[in-house]
Amino acid sequence: MKLGILITTYNDGDIILRCLDSIYNQLDNLNFPVYVVCVDDGSDSPLTYPHFDIIRTEHRGRSYARIEGLKKILAEDCTHFLFLDSDMVLPSGFFKKLQTVVENYDSDAFIIPEAAFSIYNNFWTKVKVFERNLYRVNYCKESGNIEAARLWKVLSFPGFVEGLEAFEEIQPTILGIKKGLKIIKTQEIFIYHDEKKVTLRDLLRKKNSYFCCMLESGKCSKWDIIKRYYFFRPHLYHKENLKKYIRHPVLTIGVVLMYLILTLNFLWVSISQNFVKKGMMKK
């Protein structure tokens, strides 16, 4: 096995350095090579990191940055590759456990659970961390799976969708499922994911941007969006999560409220765009 790791960054400050350090600090005494490429998507202050391959591009968005990084992974003849967000951190012993997973399971790709955390303690941050950790249950059903497979056999990877800048990390998984690839969720390894500080205003602004991007791109259908949307996610009704709801009723109410607000926001964006398109057609 030769593992390639792809990270993208844009104006992430020290967050990306924490991610890179969590990788670099584990590379000693491994019995397989690891190639790491980080694509700086035109940050205001260029990223420097002496231990890895850093590529700087003009700012075009994460999908283009990932495609550029994937070219380097392919050129290095990696057998497997892992793509990460800049706000992710690898726990100690990650690579040795990853090697065991790859050797023990014959799979085209692996969904790796994410353990959400944040140093902030305001209400909406706690709700988002609680909600993100609901995904950690051992659930992986093709028709309803919303999680992105981040660890792939290079030869099986269907590619990133060029120009799609919202929920783009899930698209290779969806394409892989449609092609009949074997994608499993592993519980042997996990990745820390920093939710940072979450406010309702920022969350609405972020999701509104994502919804507009998806609907305007035409690269994923509304039905594909809706059937994987919030209340339709089957893992929410897993018995392990039902127990969490009983233990944390306030956070559960917060998740329901957040989903209702984001659902209404999605419907408003969709309806508004339909009106705009009809107006343009009349002109």
Class of the largest domain, according to the CATH hierarchy?
Alpha Beta
Determine the CATH superfamily of the largest domain: Spore Coat Polysaccharide Biosynthesis Protein SpsA, Chain A
What is the tally of beta strands?
A: 10
Count up the helices: 9
CATH topology of the largest domain: Spore Coat Polysaccharide Biosynthesis Protein SpsA, Chain A
Strand content: 15-25%
Instruction: State the end-to-end distance.
Output: 57 Å
SSE string, helices as H and strands as E: EHEEHEEHEEHEHEEHHHH
Unreliable spans: none
Count of distinct structural domains: 2
Give me the CATH architecture of the largest domain, please.
Alpha-Beta Complex
* Category by helix and strand content: alpha/beta
Provide an overview of this structure.
With 283 residues, the protein is of the alpha/beta class. It has two domains: 1-198, Spore Coat Polysaccharide Biosynthesis Protein SpsA, Chain A, CATH 3.90.550.10; 199-282, no CATH class. 43% of the residues lie in helices and 16% in strands. The protein has nine helices and ten strands. It has a seven-stranded mixed beta sheet with strand order 3-2-1-4-8-6-9, covered by helices on one side. Strand 1 (3-9), helix 1 and strand 2 (34-40) form a beta-alpha-beta unit. The chain is globular, with a radius of gyration of 19 Å. The mean pLDDT is 87.
